[in-house]
Each structure stands twice: as structure tokens, then as C-alpha cells.
Amino acid sequence: MFKDEVYRVVKNIPKGETLSYKEVAQRAGSPGAWRAVGNVLNKNYNHDIPCHRVIKSSGETGGYNRGPAKKLSILKKEKGC
User: Fold this and answer.
1) At what angle do helices 2-11 and 34-42 cross, to 10 degrees?
2) Which residues contact 39 (CB under 8 A, 6 or more apart)?
3) What residues does each domain of the chain span?
4) Coil, strand or helix: which one is 19?
5) How far is CA 13 from the centre of its chain?
6) Which among 1, 31, 61, 65 is placed 20 to 30 Å from 55, CA to CA?
């Protein structure tokens, strides 16, 4: 299932690193499905799936179901570790 593949890819993003929605889609086996990746992650509330590590290809943070400020805060903390 696509959702499970997305979660598998995202779960393996190392702390302090990010992937773009497009990269996650490619690694999940559906290269054109970057919007679907965003939709899957928007519904994720499992703290074991670090969806905050997925950003836009432009380098912008993109959406986050706990708010964009929270996403940016977590990313900054992780990069400082």
C-alpha cells in the first residue's frame, strides 16, 4: 500500500536530515505522487513517523499537521544535535 511505503521511507530519514515530498514519492515507488505524500503525512499522528523531516523541493518547510512553526522548531533542534 502506498501509505505504508511512504511511512517506511519517512521513518528511515535520519535525525537532522530531510527529504523532499518528491524524493519520498520516488523512494516509495510512485515518482509523480508528491502531492499524495503530503496528503498521507498530513493525516499522520504517529510520533514514530517523523513527517516533519519532509520538506518542499524548494527548501521551504511545507505543511505540518501540528503547525508550520512547530515543524520549523523541530527541524532546527534536530540540525543542532
Assistant:
1) 80
2) none
3) 2-80
4) strand
5) 9
6) 1
- The H or E element spanning position 74 is helix 68-80
Which three three-digit cell numbers place residue 11? 521513518
Active site residues per annotation: 51
How buried is 33 (Cβ within 10 angstroms: 0-12 exposed, 13-18 middle, 19+ buried)? buried
Residue with cell 540540525: 79
Q: Are 30 and 4 in contact (CB under 8 A)?
A: no
Check: pTM over 0.90? Answer yes or no. Answer: yes
Q: Which three cell numbers, joined as nine digits, stand for 50?
A: 517523523
The 10s digit of each residue's pLDDT in 24-79 is 999 999 999 999 999 999 999 999 999 999 999 999 999 999 999 999 999 999 98
The CATH number for 2-80, chosen from 3.30.565.10, 1.10.10.10, 1.20.120.450, 2.40.50.140, is 1.10.10.10
